[in-house]
Amino acid sequence: MILLEPFRMSKVCLHHIHSGHFHKGLTCFSGRLPKKNSSIFMVPVRAFAVCCYASRTFASVGSLDTDVAGQESHVSNSNNFQRSVTSFQHSSDKLDGMKDFERELQELFDEVKMMIMMGNQNDAIDLLQANYEAVKERMNAGVRGIEEAATVDIIALGYMAIGDLKFVNSLLDMLNEVVDSLKDDEPLLDSVLVHMGSMYSTLGKFEKSMSAYRRAIGNMENIYGKNSVFLITPILGMAKVLSSIGRTSKAVEFYHRAISLLESSRGAESEDLVIPLFGVGSLLLKEGKPVEAESPFLRIFNIYKKLYGENDGRVGLAVCSLAHVKCAVGDANEAISLYRKALQVITTSNYMALDDSIMEKMRIDLAELLHAVGRGKEGRELLEQCLMITEKYKGKEDPSSATHLINLATSHLRSKNYVEAERLLRTSLEIMGKTVGPDDQSITFPMLHLAVTLYHLKRDEEAEQLALEALHIREKAFEKDSLPVAEALDCLVSIQTRLKKDDEELLEQLKRVLSIQEKEFGPEGEEVMITLKKVVFYLDKLGRKNEIFPLQKRLSALGMKFKQRIQH
User: Higher pLDDT residue, 381 or 561?
Assistant: First the structure.
């Protein structure tokens, strides 16, 4: 029997403190507080059975997230051979025959998966291609039943594991033609539909994903009833898609339905509840409802604590989610305490490696929070720890070191340690210069940071050259009316102001910045208000009094609205 659970190797990506804006004169890019709706909790994938065909039990996180394109490859020797899934042979017992067919599909996928994991991607492609040619031949001959659909499904999942998303898309089109003509009571159909929903979601084709999940749910409800645990997989898949397209309320409904089904079948303290509970908590944080989000995260904490004890790494991850909640409600001290506890538990339990990207993100989020509450020295120690760990495990010239150098330099800029900030930024530029081209947009981040640093060191000509270079790179890399361009322009204007450049030119540049910000943030954004003040300043300096009054009136209205926002 095929027990096809697409393997999931991806982890939460490292959060870079790259984003920010030049505010209130010339400042460094601000490393922002962890967003109120952020969450870095990773649900540990357990090894309970996930029968994707026929038996229709529900899936773990791995089978919902068909994120297998980044599967880690390790090169080693293996047998190089091909085989095809044989076409279904009718036996006297149709059920036994279908089981044989499922077993063949399982063996095919296992073999492809093993080839990919061993680094033999070309062999995996050859094997998949052989099966593709065989099933295509049958389909061209007019044979388009559930066996063909299931075979194309497995081939598509195989190519998804390889990362050939373009071919996966064409395979799904091919699969759709077959599935649309099949009756709802076909064996294996609901499992094929669940896989299609997951793959369409990965491709960003959310409407098609929902259509597949919707049909799978309908089929299963007709066969097993609306309270069957077999519904969990497509329900969770649908919830994930709905959250991806911003239909949060509907997504929460699906998560709550999954929770109810699991509670009635597995009990209120089942570990299987972690997945939908985490989904609900994350969505509530995203919606700015941290008080409501605390309850599901607290349940996850209690489930793991009861099952594994308070010193288990999974408990540490749950504590981290609670830290996000406390941060979102403004309880910074409690959030800091929880972050520290989470890091300690995960570290002492050896649940994750020190250089794991999730632990790295936790340290960076905590460092940001410490800086935000004026505890920069403690935050800087964490950033130094991130840098040391990266250098130890990946080497001093690894590209990821540049990110930590920039973060550390940002911290020193805040503390007015400009000489040290310059040293760190030049080191990061040197590392990036070896890994990306001179015109790559990513190099503009340390470049602009360095321009700010040199400005504070009163080395304005050097600062101007760096800002100009960063601006030109961004204008080539992005649209000329994009926010990254506006950030570089804003920095340049501040530098050129002190260099006493032509006021008319500076005003035009500021108007360009204002236009971009209004498009990106709306006419009432805080950034818009700050730039408006600068525009008014230059209009006054140039004696263009008739243009100032409407802008001052607008500034006054924005100031009142902004003050009201802060009070609420």
Answer: 381
